[in-house]
Amino acid sequence: MAARIASSKPISSFLLSSKVKPFSPAYFSTNFVGESPILVRDFIRAALYDPEHGYFSQRSGSVGVLDRSIKFNQLNGRKAYMKHLDAIYKQSDISWFTPVELFKPWYAHGIAEAIMRTTNLSVPLKIYEIGGGSGTCARGVMDYIKLNAPSRVYDSMTYVSVEISSSLAQKQLETVGEVSSHSKKFRVECRDAADPSGWGLDQQPCWVIMLEVLDNLPHDLIYSKNQVSPWMEVWVEKRHDKTELSELYKTLEDPLIGSCMEILDLAKDGKPRGSMTGSIAKSFLAKVFPRPRRCWLPTGCTKLLQVLHGALPKMSLIASDFSYLPDVRIPGERAPLVASKKDGTSSDHNNYLDAKGDADIFFPTDFLLLEDIDHYCSGWLKPKDEKSLKKGKKRRTITLDTSSFMEEFGLPSKTRTKDGYNPMLDDFKNTKFYLSVPTHNTK
Questions:
Q1: Which one has a higher pLDDT value, 5 or 39?
Q2: Which InterPro entries match (predicted)?
């Protein structure tokens, strides 16, 4: 979830505060792995979310809350904004501020306006938010609906936050509870959103909001020793001396990995799709210039969307995340950025196995792939299957970069400085919004 902004590198020096809970050097990443090997996604989940030693547990105060909204119209320009932001981070015992916090309430108001324009207001409005952070989005959305929607819409609405962190769940209750009328409509369910047992079945139309959630979902890794060799699952195991970790390659068997490969149209045998001439050429290159292949698969996203579509078949979805991350050193397609901070200095790692609970692991989102996963998990036929083209899609989707989204639904004039510089539009060039709504086409 740590924000790495491609177009504005100076901000990266403020993203992780040095005033964080110290990491115990006695606890190494090898403790995330038992005597038996585990899939890469399970290692990443433990490195980030282990209750005692995961990154987010080590940094329980990592998500910050601004005491007051930034008055952008009073700042002269980019230099003044950066100076103001630097001062905020230096006085705050936190790791980062999310966009919805930096640009409150305007960022959340844009999301609320998108919901208002798209939803059927003749039925009670129900919103789920996954990973609601400090509750700033929920508060902003509910504020906007109270002020701008017909009173019957606000009076009958419900807002449910699904939050895995108990400390953040409490913070959300406090933030939203500052408006007494919101409290009756808002509740927090402290659980893992990817666990289907916590959902049940809700057949009513609803909205699901996910802001900076996809980047920290566990991923799997597959490996092939050259361009035409079969793909293999990557597992993580302890070395014989048990002080270091290494990769172990196994035959493809995991069903979640299989689903992702099906969506990506990756042949399990590793042989290239296409013409026989192209296949022969690749086989020749593989023999003359063998090159190992590594591919990161968003299995955590796939599992979450499978659960959401199963539990909320009429949901509409709005998600925002990073489409690109600069300075990634980890090899492989859709590889993550692994970053830590020590003594006030940020450093990027060359190996994801270096994550010891003191490093964030976050991935770029391939929004075209996200759309395919969304259609796949909604029950539509395999995206690459030509027969599916004859059937109507169950989802209507659109991807917008953040500036386009906010210009359409938000009030960008509220985050503009005196000289015209607008950090909400200018500094988040590597973030996008994804909107997905159901259609009446169910056959």
A1: 39
A2: NDUFAF7 (IPR003788), NDUFAF7_sf (IPR038375), SAM-dependent_MTases_sf (IPR029063)
